[in-house]
Automatic annotation (TrEMBL):
Pfam families: MFS_1. GO terms for molecular function: transmembrane transporter activity. Residues 226-419 form the Major facilitator superfamily (MFS) profile domain. This is MFS transporter. It is a multi-pass membrane protein. GO terms for cellular component: plasma membrane. Signal peptide: none annotated. InterPro entries: MFS, MFS_dom, MFS_trans_sf. It comes from the Bacteria. Its main location: membrane. It comes from Jiangella rhizosphaerae. Keywords: Cell membrane, Membrane, Transmembrane, Transmembrane helix.
Length: 419
């Protein structure tokens, strides 16, 4: 049976507005910052890898305690504070550029600190969405949010590449700073009452209690096969993405001899089908099964990634790049909706922050490792060989989820204690 559209809810529309602006800004500056590092500041493959790693290393360092802290408090104030912090940090980049003192080191430091704010936002947001929309509608809500992200992927890189070529990457970063302010204002306007966190009965000291709370989140993930499998599949996929991110701009700019605007357009073209994929995920979930969809989407789209390292200078061969990027994005966006919705459905509310944190640490911890591995591989073997490694690893990513969910059609059939 179809679920009523979440867009009928005012507060969900506000949440969507904030995510629309911030995701669009992220996609615009997402292409601008690597171009700024590689083209304007002359970053090496290793420096590009460090930049990619810096934005996600915070998940490995503070992700688990952040989840426990978030379960102790209302989530909306945390989200607003995270947005404001990221806006201020990003604004330092154009200021330093105007002053003539911008360096790759500053880009890495800003990426590191905004990554800390992102930890709190991402964990808090995934725990806050069920409050706004209700647990029974999380798949529809996640689909709408991912549709927004996909629209930013389609328009953002092309605009970001064009603006970078026109104005310079440092100025373009200011766009994202403004979008975080819009997101904070939208969150502030939400009226849905958020219940207070459950009182903790334990009388342990704060430090001991924190360890106990973290262990509870870890134990739930460890004893839930579906969560273990999605964590492993997501970690491998993110590891591959981070390796590719460390060398893809160098591959396109130096080996394929593409301009910033052309790179932005190619990334946008490769992401064009993602918007439709996110929008039809609820329909696919009903036809294929909400649990089965989590592995099937990756199995179908993964092989196209082998086309990317085949690209050569010239627009005919670059079609391989567009198809490879597009197929990978389609598979990942459907998988993200299916896997996050699965997690939100089977996790008790009082554990959701800690389980989200545990999953994000396991998943996002792969990003800095992949960024560093990509930088090292890029230096030793070159960008093309590195992208071949990514293509092969991508084929293996869905195996854990397939193994656990192969006999299950829908999430409702799952027992948290078994497959």
């Amino acid at each position: 049976m179809s679920t009523p559209s979440p867009l009928r809810q005012r507060d969900f529309r506000l949440l969507l507005l904030g995510q629309t602006t911030s995701q669009f800004g992220a996609q615009v500056s997402g292409i601008a910052i690597p171009l700024l590092a590689v083209i304007t500041l002359g970053a090496s493959a290793l420096e590009a890898g460090l930049l990619a790693a810096a934005s996600t290393v915070a998940f490995a360092v503070i992700g688990l305690p952040a989840g426990a802290w978030i379960d102790r408090m209302r989530r909306r104030p945390v989200l607003i504070a995270a947005d404001l912090a990221r806006a201020v940090l990003l604004a330092t980049i154009p200021l330093a550029a105007v002053a003539g003192v911008l360096t790759v080191t500053q880009l890495i430091v800003v990426a590191l600190l905004t990554g800390v704010a992102r930890v709190f936002f991402d964990i808090g947001y995934q725990s806050y969405l069920p409050v706004v929309i209700g647990r029974d509608r999380v798949l529809a809500g996640n689909s709408a949010m991912e549709t927004v992200r996909a629209s930013g992927q389609f328009a953002g890189p092309g605009l970001g590449g064009w603006l970078t070529g026109l104005l310079g990457g440092a100025v373009v970063v200011l766009v994202q700073a403004v979008t975080f302010l819009v997101s904070a204002a939208a969150l502030f306007a939400i009226r849905t009452p958020e219940p207070p966190p459950r009182e903790l009965a334990s009388r342990q000291p704060a430090r001991g209690r924190l360890r106990t709370e973290i262990r509870a989140g870890l134990a739930f993930v460890r004893h839930t096969p579906a969560l273990r499998a999605t964590a492993l599949t997501s970690a491998v996929a993110n590891f591959c993405f981070a390796i590719a991110a460390a060398v893809s701009v160098i591959f396109m700019a130096r080996m394929l001899e593409l301009s910033p605007s052309a790179i932005g357009l190619i990334v946008a073209a490769g992401s064009a089908t993602v918007l439709a994929a996110a929008a039809v995920t609820p329909w696919l979930s009903r036809r294929v099964g909400s649990a089965r969809l989590a592995w099937l989407c990756l199995v179908v789209t993964g092989p196209a990634g082998l086309l990317i390292p085949l690209a050569e200078p010239g627009w005919t061969a670059i079609a391989f790049l567009i198809v490879g990027i597009g197929a990978g994005e389609v598979g990942q966006i459907i998988y993200a909706i299916a896997s996050v919705s699965l997690r939100q459905r089977i996790t008790p509310d009082e554990l959701l922050g800690r389980v989200n944190a545990t999953m994000r640490v396991l998943i996002m911890g792969a990003f800095p490792l992949g960024g560093l591995a990509g930088g090292v591989l890029g230096e030793l073997a070159g960008p093309r060989a590195t992208l071949w490694v990514v293509g092969v690893l991508t084929l293996l990513a869905p195996l854990p989820v397939w193994w656990v969910l192969r006999g299950t059609r829908d999430v409702e059939e799952l027992d948290p204690a078994g497959p």
